[in-house]
Amino acid sequence: MMLQKRSSILRKFFRKILQMPKVFLIIELSSKRSCITMCFSKRMKQSREKQGMTLAELGRKIGKTEATVQRYESGNIKNLKNDTIESIATALNVNPAYLMGWVEENDDEVQHRAAHLEGELTDDEWQRVLDYADYIRSKRK
């Protein structure tokens, strides 16, 4: 059961990544790893601070010590397991792809903003929003 849930989460995760307009591949593995680590550490700290959460609070949420969380944020721990990344993202209410630096904006924030508009727009206005989104996507090609 747990394995099915994990594979379902991974499928959704990679489906989102494949739908992204820009995915940059860095050939040299060491460069890739250091870029991801730097981005992850920075975004993790920014997200934690934005939530008004302390290192200790985040540690409790993910089942790690405050010192371990601090090492994640400083980039001293480079090989994080997928489960750990997922736990951190969940605790911080962000998308794992955002933490990893694979996308510029946290997808969850976009969905949250869209949810706030739900009662504020008429059906005609929603259709115009969707038409504009289609127009923007067509310009990417």
How are the SSEs placed, and which strands pair?
Layout: H1 2-19, H2 29-50, H3 55-62, H4 66-74, H5 82-92, H6 96-100, H7 107-117, H8 123-140
Tags for this model:
434 Repressor (Amino-terminal Domain), 2 domains, 141 residues, mainly alpha
Short note summarizing the structure:
The protein is mainly alpha-helical and 141 residues long. It has eight helices and no strands.
Written description of the protein model:
- The protein has helices at 2-19, 29-50, 55-62, 66-74, 82-92, 96-100, 107-117, 123-140.
- With 141 residues, the chain is mainly alpha-helical.
- The termini are far apart.
- The model is unreliable at 21-33 (pLDDT under 50).
- Residues 44-99 form the HTH cro/C1-type domain.
- Keywords: DNA-binding.
What is the beta-strand fraction? under 5%
Structural domains: how many? 2
Number of helices: 8
Low-confidence parts, pLDDT < 50 over ≥5 residues? 21-33
Superfamily (CATH H level) name of the largest domain: lambda repressor-like DNA-binding domains
In the CATH scheme, the class of the largest domain would be Mainly Alpha
- Tell me the distance between the termini: 40 Å
Helix content: over 70%
* CATH-defined architecture of the largest domain: Orthogonal Bundle
Shape: elongated
Mean pLDDT: 73
The main β sheet shows up as: none
How many strand elements? 0
The helix/strand series, from N terminus to C terminus, equals: HHHHHHHH
Q: Provide the structure class.
A: mainly alpha
Query: What's the CATH topology name of the largest domain?
Result: 434 Repressor (Amino-terminal Domain)
Radius of gyration: 18 Å
Pfam families: HTH_3
Keywords: DNA-binding
Organism: Staphylococcus aureus subsp. aureus MN8
GO molecular function: DNA binding
